[in-house]
Amino acid sequence: MGSPDEARVRLPQLRLDELLDELQARLDAARGTRDRVHSLLEAVLSVGRELDLEQALRSIVEAAAVLVDAEYAALGVIGPDGKRLSAFHTVGVSEEQIARIGPYPEGHGILGELIHHPEPLRLAKISEHSASYGFPPHHPPMNTFLGVPIRVRDQVFGNLYLTEKRGGAQFDEEDVSVTLTLAVAAGVAIDNARLYAESRLRERWLRANAEIVHRLMAGGARAEVLGLIAEQAREITGAALAVVAMPMEETESLSVELALGQGADAIRGMILPMDGTLIGEALSGATAVTSADVLHDERVLAGSLRFTGLGPAVAVPVGTGESGVRGVLLLVREAGRTAFSEKEIDPLRGFAAQAAIAMELAERRLEAEEVAVLKDRDRIARDLHDLAIQRLFATGMTLQSAGRFIEHAEASERVSRAVDDLDETIKIIRSTIFGLRTREGTEGSGLRARAVRVVGEAAPVVGFAPSVRMEGLLDTDVPKEIADNVVAVLSEALTNIARHARADHADVVLATDGREVRLSVADNGVGIPPEGRRSGLRNMAERAEHLGGHLELTRPTDGGTSLVWRVPVKKA
User: Fold this and answer.
1) Which of 77, 249, 357, 473 could form a disulfide with 87 if both were Cys (CB 3.0 to 4.6 A apart)?
2) What is the rounded distance in angstroms from the CA atom of residue 304 to the CA atom of residue 306?
3) How many CA atoms lie within 13 A of 266 on its CB side?
4) CA-to-CA distance for 57 and 73, rounded, in angstroms?
5) Residues 359-401 pLDDT 10s
C-alpha cells in the first residue's frame, strides 16, 4: 500500500487524463463539425454550379445522401395541382430494383404527408406513423426517415426524402439542420436552372421563328414551311407527334396537311369535322386547347383519330383572332409524359402566331408579284392589240388592194394566200390576248372541297359520318373533267352503301401522285349480293374505262366491300 504522498500525486494525474480525454473529444467533435461544414459548403457549391435542371436535381439528391450518411435518398417534384408528385429522382436504388418495384410513387403515405404539411419530418420508424402507407413488393426495407421541403421563391417545389441512416443510427437535429441548409441552397439552384432553361427555350423559339421567316422570304414552298413549323415545334416541346391541319374553303372541315412523328402515316391526309373535335375547338375559339390523354378524349375520338401509345396533347391556332386563324398545330407527347404546362404553351402560342404572320407576309408578297405579272400581261395585250394587230390589218388591206392590179395569176394567188395568213395570224394574236387577260381560279371549287361536301351530304343518308382521307395535289394535278367523274363516282359509291350495305362504318381515301388519281371507298357492311342490280357499278366502270382507267371491286376477309376507282391524270 502506497503512502499518502503517492496517492496525492496520482489524483491530479487522473484528473489531467480526464481533462485531456474531454479535450480530445471536443477537438474530434469540432473537427467533425468542421468537416461537415466543409462538406455542406462543397455540396452547396456543387449544386449551385449546375444549370441543367435535371442534373441539378440529381446533384441535390446525391449531396443530401452524403451529408446525412443516408443509404437511400429521393427528391419528389410536386405537380401543378399541388397534390401529387410529377417526378421522382432517387439515389441508392438500382435500375433493376426500380423496374421490379414498378411506377414511381405519386405522393401517398409519408411522402404525401410532406406535400400536405411542408415542414421537416423525422421518424425513428416509418411504419409507426399514422400516415404510413406501406411499401410495394420488391421495395427495400426502410425504417428511419428524414424529410424536408424545398422552396423556390416561397413556393414548395418538392421534398427531399432520406431513409436508413448508415450504421443503424437515428437521424438527429444536426441532420435536420444540415438538410434544411442544403434545401435552401437547392431552392436557389433550382430557380437558377429554371431561369436558364427558360432563357434557352426563348432563344430556341426565336431561332426557329427566324428560320421560318427566312425560308418564307426566300420563296420556300408552303408544304416545306409547314413541315419546318411542325418539326421545330415537335423538337422544342419534346412531342412525339406533330400535326398541321388547315381549314377547307366552303366546308366545315379541316384537312390534315402534314403529320410528323409517331403514327403520322395513319393521320396524314385525314379530313376532320370542325364541331366536336380538339383541333376544331382550337380553330373556332382561336385559343390553345389541351388534352390530358388523347386515348380517352371524346374530342379526339370524334375526329376518327387513333393515337396508340400517345398521351398529353395541345392544339394551338396558327394565327390570332384579330388577323384570322390560318390553321392548327397539334402536338402530342408519349403516354406517361407530363402534360403541357402554361409556361410551355405561352411561347408555343407566340411561335404559332409569328409563323402565321410570316406566312401572311409571304402570301402578300406572292400576291404582289402576281399583280405585277397581270399588269405586265395587260400591257403586252394592249400593245399587241393597239400596235401589232393594227399594223398587220393595215398590211393585209394594202396587199388585198394591190392584188387587184396583179395580172399574173400565180402572183395574185400568192398575195391572196399571204392575206389569208395575215388573217390567221391576227386570230392567233387575238386568242393570245384573250389568254393573257383571263385570270386563273375561275373554274370553281377544288376537288377536295367538292369531295368533302359530297361526303357531308351523304352522312345523314348512310346514318353515320364516313372517315375521309386525302393525299396529294388534288386541286392542281387532277383536270376538271376527271374531277367531275371522281365526284360522281364518290356520290354513287356512298349511295350504294346507304341502300344496300347495312354498314356502320366507311372509309374514303382520295389520293393522287401526279400520275393517277385513286378513289377508295370501303365499308363493313354485308357485301354485294350476287343477285343485286349492277347498273351503278357498271356506270362507275364505264367512267373509268372512258378515261383510260379501271374499277376494282373486292370483298375483304373481315367482311364488307372495298371499291377502288383509278384513272391516269397524265398521258404516258
Assistant:
1) 77
2) 7
3) 9
4) 12
5) 676 667 666 666 676 667 666 666 666 667 667 767 777 777 7
CA distance 68 to 162: 8
Tens of pLDDT, residue by residue over 213-239, are 777 666 666 667 777 888 888 888 888
Quickly tell me which residue has 473537427 as its cell: 31
User: Using DSSP, how many helices (H) and how many strands (E) does the chain show?
Assistant: 15, 16
- For 76, phi then psi, to 5°, come to -100, 125
| Number of CB atoms found within 10 A of residue 177's CB | 12
Mean pLDDT (the chain) is 77
CA–CA dist 214, 140 (Å, integer): 57
In angstroms, the CA 46 to CA 58 distance is: 11
Residues 6+ apart with CB under 8 A from 396: 419, 422, 423, 426
pLDDT tens, position by position, 129-155: 877 777 888 888 888 898 888 888 778
In 3-state terms the chain splits into helix, strand, coil percentages (rounded to 5) of: 55, 20, 25
Residues 6+ apart with CB under 8 A from 516: 549, 566, 567, 568, 569
- Name, in order, each residue with C-beta under 8 angstroms of 185's C-beta and a sequence gap of 6 or more: 43, 44, 47, 48
CB under 8 Å to 353, separation ≥6 — which residues?
318, 319, 320
Query: How much is the pTM?
Result: 0.58
